[in-house]
Every structure is written in structure tokens, then in C-alpha cells.
Design brief:
The chain has a single domain, classed as Spore Coat Polysaccharide Biosynthesis Protein SpsA, Chain A. 28% of the residues lie in helices and 19% in strands. It is built from 6 helices and 7 strands, in the order βαββαβαββααβα. Helix 2 (81-91) packs across helix 4 (147-156).
């Protein structure tokens, strides 16, 4: 009997991209793929058996992602990435979920694989320490099945910040293995610098 949980991957792409001014999931990386497609491919390369993309309930599926499982936030949901993470985890509640935001143009396979191999039995979450403030990086995090009830309770309590959830639950933090891998792009100015290799 295999005691290791299934590993699934989730790309968070349901944000409104208001600061960017256009859909971040559809931004074109220098390697010729959209950010969302690149993240999905990296999750597959990191051995995720299933890869899903999280979208708002009314969001159009970004072009080129029709092969992924689609998970939708509930209509009227305003709980940010927590809604997407929960919706994804419910697909396979007994699996470990490697969750990454689509707006990480520098994320690499080494970063994802190091997270996977570093997870210890009994841990609910595992994340990287931010290079900028030392706090958890919640949108490149491994969530075990035991994390799902924690996230559901946080949503029920209207507690929406995934970073604070990790802090409150004593998430173990790893030092980054690739400099700037988790630097996100929220604005056109961020995009001009962050996606350049």
C-alpha cells in the first residue's frame, strides 16, 4: 500500500489584475508561454499527477489551458486566493497540493522540487521564507490534506490572508534556493523587470 499522498498542482489565476491593467495569466513570458501555461508546465515537470487552474466563477478560461482541470471560486466569493486554494483542494482532498500564483515569472523547477522533497510527515504546510521580509511566501506553498480544514475554518471566520494563516499555524519556512524565484509581478513596472532572466 502506497503511504505517500497523491501530489496535485494548482495555478492561482483568478485575480482581477487591476494593478497590472490586464490579465496576468495571459502575459507572455520570454520563453514564449503565457505565465499560466508556464506555471502549469512546471507543476507537471515537478511530478504533479493532476494540474488545475483556479479562476473566478465568471472568468473566461485563458487561451491554451483547456487541458487543465478548471476550478471556480463560488459565485460572490471575495475571500481572495483562499477561495481558490480550497476549491482546488476539494477536488482531491486526500492529496498534497502544490499551489503557485500565476504571476511568478521567475519561478523555476528547482524551487518547486525542493519544496516537495522537503515536506515532512505531519506538516500541514511548507513554504519559503520571503527574501524581502522573512515572512512566509503563501503563493508558492505545499498544502497537505490536514491543511484543508484549517483553510475552511479561516474562510468561515472571514480570515482571508493566506500569509497570516501560515504564520498562525507555525508553518516551517525554507530558505529560497533560487534568488528572486518568488518575485511576483503585480504592476507594469514589476513586469518590465521581473520577467527578465
Amino acid at each position: 500500500m502506497n503511504s505517500s499522498p497523491q501530489l496535485c498542482g494548482l495555478v492561482l489565476a483568478g485575480g482581477r489584475s487591476t494593478r497590472m491593467g490586464r490579465d496576468k495569466a495571459s502575459l507572455m513570458h520570454t520563453d514564449g508561454r503565457t505565465l499560466a501555461r508556464r506555471c502549469a508546465d512546471l507543476l507537471r515537470e515537478a511530478a504533479c499527477e493532476t494540474v488545475a487552474i483556479s479562476l473566478r466563477h465568471d472568468q473566461e478560461i485563458p487561451s491554451g489551458l483547456e487541458d487543465l482541470e478548471i476550478v471556480r471560486d463560488p459565485a460572490g466569493a471575495s475571500s481572495g486566493p483562499i477561495a481558490g486554494i480550497i476549491s482546488g483542494m476539494i477536488l482531491h482532498p486526500d492529496a498534497d497540493w502544490l499551489v503557485i500564483a500565476c504571476d511568478l515569472p521567475r519561478v523555476d523547477l528547482t524551487t518547486l522540487c525542493h519544496l516537495i522533497v522537503s515536506m515532512q510527515p505531519g506538516e500541514k504546510f511548507l513554504a519559503y521564507r520571503s527574501e524581502f521580509d522573512g515572512l512566509p511566501e503563501p503563493l508558492c506553498t505545499l498544502y497537505s490534506p490536514a491543511a484543508l480544514p484549517v483553510l475552511e475554518q479561516a474562510r468561515a471566520d472571514d480570515f482571508r490572508c493566506p500569509r497570516k494563516i501560515l504564520i498562525r499555524n507555525a508553518c516551517r519556512l525554507l530558505d529560497p534556493v533560487t534568488p528572486r524565484a518568488l518575485e511576483n509581478a503585480n504592476t507594469p513596472e514589476d513586469w518590465e523587470t521581473a520577467h527578465i532572466s
